[in-house]
Amino acid sequence: MKFYSYTDLSKDKVEAICLRQLEDDSSILERVKSIVTRVKNEGDKALFDYASQFDKVIMNKLYIDKEEIESIASTIPADAKSAIDTAYQNIRTFHASQANKEGRVETMEGVECWRETRAIEKVGLYVPGGSAVLPSTFLMLGIPALIAGCKEIVVCSPPQQDGKTNCYVAYCAVKLGIERIYLIGGAQAVAAMAYGTESVPKVYKIFGPGNRYVTQAKQLVQSAAGTAIDMPAGPSEVLVLADETANPSYVASDLLAQAEHGADSQAILVATSRKIIDKILERLEIQIKELPRREVTALAIANSYAVLVENLEQGMEFSNVYAPEHLILATEKFEQLIPLITNAGSVFLGNLTPESAGDYASGTNHTLPTSGFAKAYSGVSLDSFVKKITFQHISRKGLENIGSTVEILAAAEGLDAHKNAISIRLKG
Amino acid sequence: MKFYSYTDLSKDKVEAICLRQLEDDSSILERVKSIVTRVKNEGDKALFDYASQFDKVIMNKLYIDKEEIESIASTIPADAKSAIDTAYQNIRTFHASQANKEGRVETMEGVECWRETRAIEKVGLYVPGGSAVLPSTFLMLGIPALIAGCKEIVVCSPPQQDGKTNCYVAYCAVKLGIERIYLIGGAQAVAAMAYGTESVPKVYKIFGPGNRYVTQAKQLVQSAAGTAIDMPAGPSEVLVLADETANPSYVASDLLAQAEHGADSQAILVATSRKIIDKILERLEIQIKELPRREVTALAIANSYAVLVENLEQGMEFSNVYAPEHLILATEKFEQLIPLITNAGSVFLGNLTPESAGDYASGTNHTLPTSGFAKAYSGVSLDSFVKKITFQHISRKGLENIGSTVEILAAAEGLDAHKNAISIRLKG
């Protein structure tokens, strides 16, 4: 782990260390382009070919249906079933609370304006499942889609070695009432949902994290096919802000949890004294030895850094420039820091709130803006699955009240037909 | 205007006529790429050159400040000032009503989750002003940015022939408390805000309509620079659904108001009888003769079409496939149609509610999804200028309640360090 002292850093240097290392992925882009183009042109045939090429599975059909899903789901261990049930309930409770009905507003007498919410009718969920199987992502995307009322929920997840999906993903599907899972992974899954194939329906918006191919494919179809996407995505990251009230072992465990995602994950430690940093790194060295994924975890830790700050406020200043996907406030003084947070995806308060709680089960969504995108993007929520449509109704009285204003502004912009749409109505 | 009878159309044909005619703009893309690259590399120098090349103005500096803005604003005619004041008030009232504070949710005892809203700190507003000067767009973007509390609001608008801006735009700036206007137009303005130059600050999100160059530049910087944008954009459009209770003259005036935007605008008429269509087209022929922009308006009308439907419900079915930016329900029976609307940007109810009211002054935003994007996107609102950050706090009791669930799910996904972040805390 590198080390910086914040007060020694110039503004430019701060910006530089906050820049995520985005590899030059022009070679990936070319490969993704060719995959997307082939799926667009050849449909299912391309998908069968890619399953054999990338997933090393010969598929007979591209999906499994209700009966087969239920049969696979029934093999889930009892404790995992119960854990998914609990996570499901919490995620559902929190996302349901995000629905809000807005009232009508009379901006002038007789001029009434309001918004109504409508579900996006066709959405595509990508549930990763290559190197790690991620049923939690299925819940994080499926539950808000269900609450929103999306009519058609298309789910793609890479086939496992047996050409099926695993019991966790299958059980999530049962919980969500999803009756078909497309066993398609990577850029080809994104292309299939963006353009539609003989088997896979075309959707209006695609959600879900994935590797570089998936991410690149999402950005490609966003501009080429006009498909909306949840957000751009990069490797996962955490920033932990710690002071002397932090528990060094807990902080070490949080940094390691982030680092085990992959060598390109970032685990940033910001602390108010060198002593705290040293203690945490000491615990980290001990804990990492016990981890099955210690090699990749060590790579990520080596790519990460610690920043010494003079106080918590300065730490927040740095954090807001970094704009972390996950922000852990490992301090008893978290309440006073909340108003200072401007850029972050999801925030974990105090010593007993690890990121992994939010990754799986507390109720918040784990699909969050990485790579500094938290400066402009929110994480996935119920909002991500709906549109808000504005409505207005104007009465005769309202028309009289607003008419001349519209006429004058339309004339100022040289749009006479706009003006006339008012004038002709004012004449009665 | 072409004519179709809905019941004679196959599903494929319906999809085909709903497809917006997107010209092949690969030549535009190449030119935009070169403009964006030059601004990125050369900064202000490129902006001065483009002002002289595209706007035909030799600029000494790229912006005007408070004093000059106030001086220009003071020349505004009294009636226009008062019209802007009224529009400002209505837009402010409606957008302020979109703020909502969410409560904290206890998903399990001791596990508390909530969201807080934060303004996007740096936003860029593009106020078009080439062929038509659009102060209304300035209000539509500036007011929600102000309510949201965006710290830095960068405004770009093309210079007028005198190298300044006009009195309407200047007066809007005064109303909004914006103390600098960058006199930069087109793709170069978008590039300047995405990358920053010596004069122009870099922003996190860019808003605003514009011509093809502006639109293409927004999409380019979205993928290349990671700058968020409000939405993709295409030519403006309206769909009017009319029955025998519609006023043919009013409907004609609404179609013409849309058509005068440009030859590529679409004005779609859907009506429940041939007689209604004929009456409306009759009035349209009369009204168009009086319009100063009648030539371009006639081109747009020629590119548009009418659809005969059997009843209003069938009309809504078609409208939802078309997903219009603006939907006018020219019928007294609008209330019963509201629940049937799934895809639209903004809806105008009844015979006395012309689109132009919403374009300028009723309070709703006029920056809306075109080209069918209403299937997945909302128009600009207060939401567009904020992010929602999730927070969570877990107590000892909460940790005991949620702990095993997280441990089991983390283990199922093979993420032992995630599991350990819980286990180590459970040990106390």
TrEMBL record, chains A, B:
Q: How is the cofactor bound?
A: Binds 1 zinc ion per subunit.
Catalytic activity, reaction form: L-histidinol + 2 NAD(+) + H2O = L-histidine + 2 NADH + 3 H(+)
Required co-factor(s) are: Zn(2+)
Q: Which InterPro entries match?
A: Ald_DH/histidinol_DH, Histidinol_DH_CS, Histidinol_DH_monofunct, Hstdl_DH
Query: What's an example GO cellular component term for this entry?
Result: cytosol
Q: Which residues bind Zn(2+)?
A: Q258, H261, D359, H418
Q: Name one Pfam family in it.
A: Histidinol_dh
Name the protein family.
Belongs to the histidinol dehydrogenase family.
Role summary: Catalyzes the sequential NAD-dependent oxidations of L-histidinol to L-histidinaldehyde and then to L-histidine.
Name assigned to this protein:
Histidinol dehydrogenase
State the species of origin: Pedobacter frigoris
Show the taxonomic lineage: Bacteria, Pseudomonadati, Bacteroidota, Sphingobacteriia, Sphingobacteriales
Which gene is the coding source of this polypeptide chain? Answer: hisD
